[in-house]
Amino acid sequence: MSDPSERRRSDGRAGRPPVSRPPRRTGREDVRSFRPEEPDDDSEYRIEGRNALNEALRAGRTVEKVFVAEGLEKSALTPLIAKCRAAGAVVVSCDRRRLDAMSDTGAHQGVVAFVSPCEYVSVGDIVDAAEASGRPALIVVCDHIEDPRNLGAILRSAEVAGAHGVVIPRRRGASVTGTVVKASAGAALHLPIARTANVNAAIRELKERGVWVLGAEGGQGDLVYDADLRLPTAFVLGSEGGGLARLTAESCDRLVRIPMLGRVNSLNVSAAAAVLLFEAVRQRTATERS
Questions:
Q1: What is the reported pTM?
Q2: Phi, psi for residue 168 in degrees, rounded to 5
């Protein structure tokens, strides 16, 4: 019996089928089709914009490679590029259209960089840091926030409010990516973030560590202004579409709401996070000043 790998060629001679090879790259391909591979193992990720890159350097994050639009090397970017090179990053000048193709946000400001991944911590690490700070814990738990821009905005408010950390789910929710870093104005690079396989298990751990867990629900619960937020507190925020899952709401110590006085009966989840966090800041600041 003949080798099954053999095929009859058109000239009657037996031979193997031609091997398909990718076309040779000439360097003249349309740069708009360029998109670097995103590693599956989160070995690094892409950030965009000057502020995000600067915050990555400030946070001590390893910057692997920086792509800069041609013509910007000797501009206001010069000090930032010098910092990148001093930190060991490879700086590459490229066509702006190439940056456009690499960009997810469309607002790269002439800079796209690849940095080391987010170094997630544990829920216990966040509580330990709160106890070591001498301030009552202030934590945000995200119950399946799916929009990376919402997650970024939540991280930004949490960092500015002095929160000790944010907890996010491992699945069915946004993780920390370049889009999140951009939306957080770099706050994601400074704030401890825990990733948990089970949000309800994380809530139980917080309660066991003495943290008062408050679930934010639009039309249910007590006014947040009536809650004592001077205690160690964690706010649990539900998903954009469905709010808190039933079991998650039942796991909380108490449900709180923000008063809605207009015709629209809900806030964007990131806006709600800011209101809740800064009500805690207001109460604690008032106590410190009295």
A1: 0.73
A2: -125, 155
